[in-house]
Automatic annotation (TrEMBL):
<feature type="signal peptide">
    <location>
        <begin position="1"/>
        <end position="35"/>
    </location>
</feature>
<comment type="similarity">
    <text>Belongs to the outer membrane factor (OMF) (TC 1.B.17) family.</text>
</comment>
<keyword id="KW-0732">Signal</keyword>
<keyword id="KW-0472">Membrane</keyword>
<keyword id="KW-1134">Transmembrane beta strand</keyword>
<dbReference type="InterPro" id="IPR003423">
    <property type="entry name" value="OMP_efflux"/>
</dbReference>
<dbReference type="Pfam" id="PF02321">
    <property type="entry name" value="OEP"/>
</dbReference>
<protein>
    <submittedName>
        <fullName>TolC family outer membrane protein</fullName>
    </submittedName>
</protein>
<keyword id="KW-0998">Cell outer membrane</keyword>
<dbReference type="InterPro" id="IPR051906">
    <property type="entry name" value="TolC-like"/>
</dbReference>
<dbReference type="InterPro" id="IPR010130">
    <property type="entry name" value="T1SS_OMP_TolC"/>
</dbReference>
<keyword id="KW-0813">Transport</keyword>
<keyword id="KW-0812">Transmembrane</keyword>
């Protein structure tokens, strides 16, 4: 009994200890969620982006055009079965000239197995070539979809980072203005300040409250934009580490080389070139209406009581031959189709030419954005250092009596403005660099990994070499 009571007491103490531990754990703050970096976002987007998944499905559907076209040139085998009950009445004069009526009730049947091998079908040959070009265009369109996904993802990710930076800058500016406001009030109460200092600090502080609200709304919006691509809630993002960032001008340094490369491998242009070939094969299909078709036909059939003169008679027939169909006149249909196909070729060629020029302009624009972005970021980095020094100098000047609190507030506002411009310049440089790679069809996972290395490592992950 004593052992049992001691065991019960031990179990009770254990339960109380466990309950206390759970209560303590509930009071502890939850660990922060791991920050999402660009590479993680890319892998999630590959799986979850609805637009890209639709493009993949469209490409898979387009690939079936080749086996379908090939099937039109391969042998086809068909079987047919016919069985029917027949009733026939025959009226004919007899030997005396009188009308005699006879009735026949019988069952007829026919079984046939037919093999057909196309030998000459110009339409089928053109359709097969057209299907191959259609698949080429579909693969290029899928590649374009991937490039578009990467650019959309990078744009959404760095828009969210910019909104995050702007929100942090507004908070820091609000805290600085609050501190200056309190200092101005204390100085005024001590008879050392002016009412103007208080009013100016109050006005700036009130303005930052409105800016904070706008920044919070923009932060939530940009994160939701990213969420629509990766289909996962975005709580925290890996921030850009300026020390890791590599500022490099485009290589090669000649925009014309980038344009030439883009005209050759840009996925959208490749898809449009495939469309031109598809249109040319459409012309061959139209002209095929002038050519004969030749098929090799083999058939094995068995029939019984085919008609009322072969009742109870069975036939076993084997047929091997060539079937030729020669078009003579179709009312101008083939000629009209030919004219229509020629117009389709012209349309496809002009669409390609228009887009080729646009792609060249876009490449030149992003090339300049990257080249000038390097210089702009470096200039703003120097401006940031100068703005920080200006704040320090104004604070020292205020202590020496040569600067006012308004001068300090102006210097702080200028520093925040420079920091904001610097963040915009950095993110614009990154996105322009990725867009340039996308326009020449070279943006891929290694390119994303290279940019991802510029971000601060998420919690729990070691820095990548």
């Amino acid at each position: 009994m004593r052992g049992t009571a001691h065991s019960a007491l031990s179990r009770g103490a254990a339960w109380r200890a466990a309950a206390a531990a759970l209560g303590l754990a509930a009071l502890l703050p939850a660990p922060p969620a791991a920050a999402l970096d660009l590479l993680d976002s890319y892998r999630l987007a590959l799986q979850n982006d609805a637009r890209h998944q639709a493009s993949r499905a469209q490409a898979a559907a387009s690939r079936e055009a080749v086996p379908q076209a090939r099937a039109q040139l391969l042998p086809s085998v068909s079987a047919s079965l016919t069985r029917s009950r027949n009733s026939t009445e025959r009226e004919a004069p007899d030997v005396f000239g009188r009308t005699a009526t006879d009735s026949f009730d019988y069952v007829s049947s026919n079984y046939a197995l037919t093999l057909r091998q196309p030998v000459l079908r110009m339409y089928g040959f053109a359709q097969y070539r057209q299907a191959r070009h259609q698949v080429e265009g579909a693969e290029a369109t899928l590649d374009r979809s991937l490039q578009d996904l990467l650019v959309r993802l990078a744009g959404a990710y760095f828009d969210a980072l910019l909104a995050q930076d702007q929100h942090a800058l507004v908070i820091a500016q609000k805290e600085a203005y609050a501190a200056q406001l309190e200092a101005s009030k204390r100085a005024f109460a001590a008879g050392q300040g002016t009412r103007t200092d208080i009013d100016d600090a109050q006005a700036r502080y009130d303005l930052t409250l409105a800016q904070e609200l706008e920044a919070s709304q923009n932060l939530g919006y940009t994160r939701r934009q990213l969420q629509t691509i990766i289909d996962r809630p975005v709580d925290a993002l890996a921030a850009l580490d300026p020390a890791r960032m590599e500022l490099q001008p485009p290589q090669p340094a000649d925009a014309e080389e980038w344009i030439a490369r883009g005209e050759e491998v840009n996925p959208e242009l490749r898809a449009l070139r495939a469309d031109i070939e598809v249109a040319r094969q459409e012309l061959d299909k139209a002209r095929a209406g002038h050519y004969p078709t030749v098929d090799l036909v083999a058939q094995r059939s068995r029939s019984e009581s085919e008609n009322n003169v072969s009742i109870d008679t069975r036939y076993l027939t084997t047929l091997v031959g060539v079937q030729v169909n020669v078009p003579l006149f179709a009312g101008g249909y083939t000629v009209s189709q030919t004219r229509q196909a020629l117009a389709g070729i012209e349309r496809a060629e002009q669409q390609y030419e228009a887009r080729r020029r646009e792609v060249g302009q876009e490449i030149r624009k992003e090339f300049q954005n990257v080249a000038e972005g390097v210089l702009r970021v470096r200039a703003l980095e120097q401006a940031e250092r100068s703005a920080g020094q200006a704040v320090f100098s104004n604070q020292k000047g205020f202590q020496a009596g040569t600067r006012s609190r308004i001068d300090i507030l102006d210097a702080q506002q200028q520093r925040v403005s420079v920091k904001r411009d610097l963040a915009v310049a950095r993110y614009r440089y990154i996105v322009s660099r990725l867009r340039l790679q996308s326009l020449v069809g070279t943006l891929d996972e290694p390119g994303i990994e290279a940019v991802n290395a510029w971000l601060a490592p998420p919690a729990g992950r070691a820095p990548e070499n």
